[in-house]
Amino acid sequence: TGKKQLKDDPQFARYAEFTAMETSKHAAATARLADATHRLEARNIMPLLGLRVFNVPTEKEGTVRFEVVNAGLGPALNVRCQVEGLGITSEVWQSPALGPGEWVGRPQEAQVKYSCAIDGKSPPSSEAEIPRVKASYEDVLGNSYESLFVSRHPVVVGADGAMQGRLAFHHILKEKEEA
Predict the structure, then answer these.
(1) Closest CA to 153 of 177, 127, 134
(2) Which of 23, 65, 97, 168 has its CA 20 to 30 A from that of 151?
(3) CB-hemisphere CA count at 13 Å for 144?
């Protein structure tokens, strides 16, 4: 027959190639948009606990005073706060939930005991020796998080009475279970 088949038409081939490339770009953009939407939704339910520490005893035992506030957009569930560090035994402070923006109205307390007295003036031999306050908590989907306050060494107290240090936040990734 004298009819030209479309597959042999160079203009059709260029159009098909162009269409495939554009479709690929749109698919990639849609995937990026879906990912960004998922991250935004996750932020809307993510808790973020802040910690302020008012004193860490330097004797064999004593009381650590701290404040907890949820600065995130979602509620923090199963909140547990304790003091950690090399040779430290600590009480655990617990709360079933802290809503977004919720602050525990007064400093909380946890009793601590050290295997040896710490010296707040001489530098520790490792960061593990510095007492730190850790908050463990979950979001409404069961994702786990930690907030960790590590005080400065030597100890420095701010104008508001809170100890200076650094605060870190971690999202705890769960291992995937095999089916």
Answers:
(1) 127
(2) 97
(3) 7
